[in-house]
Amino acid sequence: MTQPEPTNTEDATSAATPSDRAPTHEHLRDTYGRSIDYLRISVTDKCNLRCVYCMPASGVPYRPHDELLRIEEIARFVRLAAREGIRRVRLTGGEPLVAKGIVDLIRQIKAIPEIEDIALTTNGALLPRLAPALKDAGLDRVNISLDTLDPAQFGRITRIGEIEGTLAGIDAALEYGFDPVKINCVVVRRLEQDVFGFARLSLDRPLHVRFIEYMPIGNDETRAHGALDPESATYDASLWGQSDVVPTSELIERINASAARAGMPGLEPASSDVPFGAGPACYWRFPDAAGTVGFISAMSNHFCSQCNRLRLTADGTIRPCLFSDDEYSVREALRSGSDDDVLAIYRAALAHKPEEHGLIDGTARFMSQIGG
Ligand code: SAM
Ligand code: SF4
User: What band does 107 get if pLDDT is binned at 50, 70 and 90?
Assistant: First the structure.
C-alpha cells in the first residue's frame, strides 16, 4: 500500500508561521537557506537505562567529569545562540534527569528573553519526583520514550529498566500540565512490538504517540572497538541493519489492518489545531481520540530540506547533523574565550551544516552521547 499523504507536519503547523520566522539576523539561515532556530542539547552522557537500540550491552564509557560542560557553560552557549536566532531548546542526553543542576539549567534558559520554548526528552523514570520542580523552573513540554506496553519486553529493551517507572512518569507529565506530552517509540523489526496496541495509548488521554524509524547511530564505534557482546547479539544497537527498519508506510498499514480487525476506524490525518512542535513528524489520529499518532520517517523519507536544528553534545561540541560525525568543539571557548570566540565557532558549524545526509550505516558516537 502506498502511504497516504499527511496533511501536516510539525514544521508546517508549529506555533511560528513562516513569516514569524523570517530572518532578523544574517546567521539565522544556513548555507542552504534553512532557518536554524532549534537547538538540541545533550546535558549528560550518563543514563539510568541501557536501551538496546541506543547503546551496546557493555554500555558506553562515560566522559571524565571535567570534559563535560557545566550548567553555566551550557546556559552561556544558549544565551549566545539566541543572539544567532535560536528560539527553541530541547534538553536531552543520555538521561537529562540524572544530570545534576537540570532544574537550575531550565531556570537559566527560561530567563533568556529570545527563547520561546523549552522541551525535554526523557525516559520518564525520574519524572514523578522531578516534575513539580521542572514545571516551576519553566519547562514547557516533555517527550517520554517508551517502546512497548509489555513489562517483560520493556525489561528486555531497556536491559535494566522497569516499566512502572516510565508509566508513572507519563502520569506525572499529564498531572503537572506539560503540554503536549509526546511518547517516543523506536520501532525495531526484530523486537516485534505491538504497534496497534501502542497506538491505542492515544485514544483516552491527550498523549501524542510517535513511532520513530530505527536509525543507524553508533554502530561504527562498536565495530571499531569490538564491543559486541555475543550474549546479547540479537538485541544490540551495534547490529543495526536496514532490515530492522520498519518504514512508516508499513506501520500505518499494520495499524489500520489491526484496527479493522478490532472493528475500529483507522487513522486519519490530524487536523492542524494540534500543538505539534518544531520537529519533522507527520501526525494522524483515530477519530475522536484524545491524542494523536505521529511518524518520524528519518530513514524512509529524508527531511533534510526542512532541517531547522543544531546539536550541542554533553562534552561541548556543536554537531550540525545527527548523521554526520563532523563536529566543532566549543568547550574551551565557553570556558576561557570571549563571546566572539564562541560565536565564531557557532558560525563555522552553521556554515558547515550539510545540505543532506547520504546513505549511512553508522556514526562514531552512540545516540546517548550525541543526544537524540
Ligand atoms: N534518555 C532520554 C530518552 O530516552 O528519552 C533522552 C535521550 S535518548 C538518546 C533520545 C531519543 O533517541 C529517545 O526517544 C530514544 O528512543 C531515541 N533513540 C535512541 N537510539 C535510537 C536509534 N538508534 N534510532 C532512533 N531513535 C533512537
Ligand atoms: Fe538511555 Fe535514552 Fe538511550 Fe534509553 S534511549 S539508553 S533511556 S539515553
Answer: very high
Residues 183 and 293: their CA atoms lie apart, in Å, by: 9
Tell me the pTM: 0.89
Q: At what angle do helices 102-110 and 127-137 cross, to 10 degrees?
A: 20
Atom of ligand 2 nearest to the CA of 368: 8
Length of the chain: 372
Which one of 2.60.120.10, 3.20.20.70, 3.30.365.10, 3.40.1280.10 gives the CATH number of domain 19-370? Answer: 3.20.20.70
Domain residue spans of the chain = 19-370
Task: Decide whether any atom of ligand 1 lies within 6 Å of the 370 Cβ.
Answer: no
| Contact (CB, 8 A) for 293 and 197 | no
Q: Are 56 and 227 in contact (CB under 8 A)?
A: yes
> What confidence tens digit (pLDDT) does each residue in 139-154 have?
999 999 999 999 999 9
Residue nearest to atom 4 of ligand 2 (CA): 51
- Cβ neighbourhood burial of 222 (10 Å; 0-12, 13-18, 19+): buried
178 band by pLDDT with thresholds 50, 70 and 90: very high
pLDDT above 60 for 359: no
Kindly state if the Cβ of 53 falls inside 6 Å of ligand 1. Answer: yes
The residue nearest atom 17 of ligand 1, judged by CA position, is: 372
CA–CA separation, 369 and 92 (whole Å): 10
Cα–Cα distance measured from residue 303 to residue 275, given in angstroms and rounded to the nearest whole number? 20
Between the CA of 283 and the centroid of ligand 1 the distance, in Å, is 19
Cα of 325 to ligand 1 centre, how many Å?
18
Contact 313, 320 (CB under 8 A): no
